[in-house]
Amino acid sequence: MKIFSAAQIREADAYTIRHEPISSLQLMERAAGACAQWLYGHFDASRPCYIFCGMGNNGGDGLVIARLLQDKGYQATACVLHHSSKASADHQANREALERQYPQSLYDIHAVTDFPELPAGSIIVDAIFGTGLSRPIEGWMTGIVHKLNDLQARHTVIAIDLPSGLLADASSVLMPVVHAHHTLSFEVYKLALLMPENAARTGQVYILSIGLHPAYLTQTPARFHVTDAAMMRTIYQPRQPFAHKGTFGHALLVAGSYGKMGAAVLSAQACLHAGVGLLTCHVPQCGYLVMQISAPCAMCITDPQEAYSAHFHEGLSPAEAVKYKTIGIGPGLGTATATAKALELLLEQYQQPVVIDADALNIMAAYPFLLSRIPPGSLLTPHPKEFERIFGSTRNDFERLERLSQQATQLQLYILLKGRYTAIACPDGAVYFNATGNPGMATGGSGDVLTGILTALLAQGYAPKAAVLLGAYLHGLAGDIAAARLSQEAMTAETIIDCLGPAFLQL
Ligand SMILES: NC(=O)C1=CN([C@@H]2O[C@H](COP(=O)(O)OP(=O)(O)OC[C@H]3O[C@@H](n4cnc5c(N)ncnc54)[C@H](OP(=O)(O)O)[C@@H]3O)[C@@H](O)[C@H]2O)[C@@H](O)CC1
Ligand SMILES: [K+]
After folding, report:
1. CATH for 229-235+243-506, among 2.60.40.1180, 3.40.50.2300, 3.40.1190.20, 3.40.30.10?
2. Where in the chain is the domain with CATH 3.40.1190.20?
3. Model pTM?
4. Residue to substitute in 8, 57, 190 for testing ligand 1 pocket (most ligand atoms within 8 angstroms of CB)
5. Which ipTM did the prediction report?
6. Where does AMP bind (predicted)?
7. What is the secondary structure of 349-377 as a DSSP string?
8. How far is the CA of 58 from the centre of ligand 1 (A)?
């Protein structure tokens, strides 16, 4: 699914009105109808509804929602906030329609002191500002936002299109914004809905289809995307009947050190469960038995060092390196100086795309000159702290996203920034957000599992872009299946591996 800017959404709106054709008033009726359907499905008519409406079309949606709720027997009040003396035409038309049918449902607010008393358990609908917000909320309207946010603990707040005050395409981190439990957004994600800095404002996000014209949606180029099951089905390559283990590649995993062999085992097991043909693990002496017993399907070579690895480059002469389709490096590796030196030598000798994670990233942070030596097309998988250590801190998530994308382009790498919506920046400037996964995956070892999956997919011959998009999706999906079976609390990185099979079966 493409992510559109506020300007593109306005174009999509206008295109639909011209080409469907449909009047703007009917399109508003359709958008509000989708929200009303959602509300009927989630709350019964016993709860009073207060719909806070701005003077633009977001407020127009709110006025229609109030009328549709009244039609179904809900007790709905449209609280119109007169932040401007001029209402949009569709707002005005829907105000008149509500006034005609349900005059008692209109309540005008001109100042904070007009704010109504809400009975316990009310539903608050925030239809104040949507994609038309052009500047931070100021003056007495700030007081309204604070009132609504104070009420959030005791009432359910549902934002229409965007929580009011949130800019669709830029950071609103220091601005007053309504805090919603649920956001019902139209047709496509807006960038702001995917940013961690807005998590407390958006709550759970639902994308409701309002039938914007498919020609506009398919023909309009977008830089930002959200991946979905349909896209994964075009990437996934089912196995051919005459395939053998050589078909699916031989991967080398360089991982583990004293006290961190678990990371290596998790990564190896994930790699094996994600379909690698053959796996060799390079571990320090202390990891030999651990790996042989915990991952018997993998071969194991040991470093001369006891507690950490420092010689993994040695088996990678040009003649020997060709046997490995890819290398996954980093989980539990440690950051010893000798390990960093071996990583430098490995990057001199191995030219194909690799997966770089965890301590290999921390080594990059300590020796930034290594970044430019990573083979083009490689996959980097930092979490936010690792990202910051390597690429520096930023003032907000939008700035971080730009930094991410710019570095992916400059270094010609795929950089996957882990989070609720993992952001995958591509060398061509495109960014894909992954929507699978859940907070149960914020647990030790979850990242090591991702490294194993990505290594397996590269080994099987998936192109780097396909591998990183499919790998992130499968990782999150396996996590969702694990959470459904065991709960987000009880699931572990091991259970994510156990659920990789069911995740593949869903593709
Ligand atoms: N696109 C679609 O697919 C569809 C879109 N639809 C809906 O339309 C919404 C977009 O509507 P929109 O363009 O009228 O903008 P909206 O968000 O109501 O705000 C404009 C109002 O806010 C004002 N204003 C702005 N900033 C302000 C501030 N800081 N403080 C105070 N005032 C401020 C501005 O006033 P002005 O700048 O003129 O002073 C104006 O009055 C969209 O989110 C969706 O809900 C659906 O109905 C149909 C399908
Ligand atoms: K809103």
Report:
1. 3.40.1190.20
2. 229-235+243-506
3. 0.96
4. 57
5. 0.97
6. 418-422, 447
7. H--S--EE-HHHHHHHHH-GGGGGGSPTT
8. 5
